[in-house]
Amino acid sequence: MESTIIKAVNYNAYFGDNQVVKEVSMDIARNSVVAVMGPSGCGKTTFLRGINRMHELVPSAHANGKIWLNNEDIMEMHPIVVRLKIGMVFQRPNPFPNLSIHDNVLAGYKLNGIKLSKSERERIVEESLVKVALWKEVKDSLMKKGTFLSGGQQQRLCIARAVAMQPEVLLFDEPTSALDPISTAMVEELFKELKKNYTLIIVTHNMQQAARVSDKTAFFYMGELVEYDDTKLMFTNPTDQRTQNYITGRFS
Amino acid sequence: MAQIEVEIQHLKEEVVNMGYLVKAQLQKSKTALTNFDKNLAREIVIKEKRVNGYELKIDRDCENILALRTPVAVDLRFILAVLKINNNLERIGDIAEGIAKYIIHTETKFTPQLLQRSKVLQMLEVGITILEDGLASFEHENTILARSIFLRDEFLDEVNFQAIGFTKAYMAENPSEIDETLYILSIIRKLERVGDQVKNIAEEIIFYIEAKVLKHNKDLLP
What we know:
The structure holds two protein chains of two kinds. Chain A contains eleven helices and ten strands. By secondary structure, chain A is an alpha/beta fold. In chain A, helix 5 (about 120-130) packs across helix 7 (about 150-165) and helix 7 (about 150-165) runs parallel beside helix 8 (about 180-195). The longest helix of chain A has 14 residues, at about 120-130. The two termini of chain B are about 35 Å apart. The interface of A and B includes residues 235, 244, 247 and 248 of A.
């Protein structure tokens, strides 16, 4: 039976007085892929950033309600600990330009001052790059700069960097919007593999991507979670008229 | 209006136009049968090419929408339904053509007595009426009307069920009309299938509008 790893209960997020996420409650099952979609400004990215406490990094931003990671309230946890357990990958590949591929994978450890033995470092680098299907492509050039890679490879390197910290959950904010179709397909294939070990939450504007990769899909509109259901159901027979209007392109 | 809405509306109009052409073919086959009008029967055979043309065009339009617009939800159900309704309508067109060919090939006129006692004209009338209602329910998204088709199809099944008994009895009484009676038996068999095709159309309309699958599910039937 599937267990819940993330549970949001009446979660609200604000920028100053402007409430951008309203009373969102949703359960996310362990080892599942959840797509979050909705029009621009609907609060989906803010909700995603709330899950690993990045929302509050913006001046004037604040949040209330609960988000549970397993049985821990992330609002009560130290943000750094939250981000170690819940990694994030962004829209544009952002490897550290001055670091090698090898050091990019280990950046999370270095930035957090975690010391590793040489054998641990090598093991983590190899395992992480294998997990993102990049090892074969870069094993002979690990000391080259991360920016030496193609856009798709850079994005997989960023995923490897997140995976290296052994998180439980990975958040993706439009992870393929800057990639060509071939690189997009590789990243999407990767999601299937990553799902075996992690829970993935993906914000995407690409509805077909949501349909292809996710088990469940959430539709946000004007800060509200309008509908959250099995992806197959959402794309064949959504319950809410607003969801239907959005996915069929009839949104005005 | 989004481009996919425009294309779906156009496709819907095409299906309705095809449906009314098929209905006209059935109506003409009834008239040709009643009046033993071989010229009208030949016209039906010629017009069947237009029905086939519609079928190919609608298939191609569905393919284009699937490839270029990636429809989902109600749009996807609409395209899936249209692909099947298109096929159902084409089959009904084939049946009208089949009846016309019998009329062309039969040498002797069907007697009024044979037409009346076999109930073949009544079957044609029911077939035309339920097809018309099927088209109206598709055009106006009326699932109540679509559901009414299932009950009215029973008349066609009943006449078909009794057809062997009728044929045997009629041929025994009228040995000079054996060929004509056998043609009428074949027409009855075809008209029973018109009922099935229209029922399939009704099921697809309900699937498209209500997202309910009635096929092979007797519990959901009225």
